[in-house]
């Protein structure tokens, strides 16, 4: 995973700088997300990996599926990735681009994973607490993972706040072993 991050970083940073220069972070966010979705499709992934399919045909397919919203610069980005055999990095490039975009906009991206579905009031309380702690706006994604048993895990940037029962049990087991 860290290798993917390392390989994707220069491309994400280059697209981010280009988006900033064009004053179009939202537009590029949409383009990169669309491209990531396209290459994540199982059939497209097989075509990308198939050495019998010419790279220019794969680029043509991706650009046509992305549509007019991709634009000339977006199509050129796809060509550069293809020429460097990096099309499969698009999901990671998209993730890193969104992180850079959030940082530039003064927002943090957070994922709240709870054992049970949270009410909107609970999510709002958690977001308010995160805003107070980090002194920045927070965009959240909410997920449910019953394996947590109870509580929640909050991932924000590279920090993890583990308030789950599963996490507590693991910490207790580790403490008892040591």
Report on the structure:
This protein is of the alpha+beta class and 178 residues long. Helix content is 63%, strand content 14%. The protein has a 4-stranded mixed beta sheet with strand order 2-1-3-4, sandwiched between helices. Helix 1 (2-21) runs antiparallel to helix 2 and helix 1 (2-21) crosses helix 6 (90-104). It starts with a helix and ends with a helix. The mean pLDDT is 92.
Short key terms for the protein model shown above:
single chain, 178 residues, alpha+beta
Question: Which sheet architecture does the biggest sheet show?
Answer: 4 strands, mixed
Work out the strand percent: 5-15%
As residue ranges, the low-confidence spans are none
The Rg value, from CA coordinates, equals 20 Å
Q: Which term fits the overall shape?
A: globular
How many DSSP helices?
8
What is the element string, with H for helices and E for strands?
HHHHHHEHEEEH
Report the average pLDDT across residues.
92
Strand order of the largest sheet: 2-1-3-4
Global structural class? alpha+beta
- How far the N terminus sits from the C terminus, by CA atoms, comes to 30 Å
Strand segment count: 4
As a percent range, the share of helical residues equals 55-70%
């Amino acid at each position: 995973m860290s290798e993917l991050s390392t390989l994707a970083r220069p491309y994400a940073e280059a697209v981010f700088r280009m988006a900033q220069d064009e004053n179009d972070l939202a537009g590029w966010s949409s383009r990169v997300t669309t491209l990531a979705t396209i290459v994540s499709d199982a059939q497209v992934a097989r075509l990308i990996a198939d050495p019998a399919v010419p790279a220019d045909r794969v680029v043509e397919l991706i650009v046509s599926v992305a549509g007019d919203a991709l634009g000339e610069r977006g199509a050129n980005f796809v060509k550069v990735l293809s020429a460097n055999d990096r099309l499969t990095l698009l999901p990671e490039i998209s993730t890193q681009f969104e992180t850079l975009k959030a940082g530039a906009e003064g927002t943090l991206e957070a994922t709240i994973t709870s054992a049970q579905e949270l009410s909107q009031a609970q999510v709002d309380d958690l977001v308010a607490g995160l805003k107070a702690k980090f002194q920045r706006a927070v965009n959240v994604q909410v997920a449910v993972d019953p394996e947590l048993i109870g509580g929640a895990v909050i991932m924000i940037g590279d920090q993890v706040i583990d308030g789950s029962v599963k996490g507590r049990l693991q910490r207790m087991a580790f403490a008892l072993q040591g």
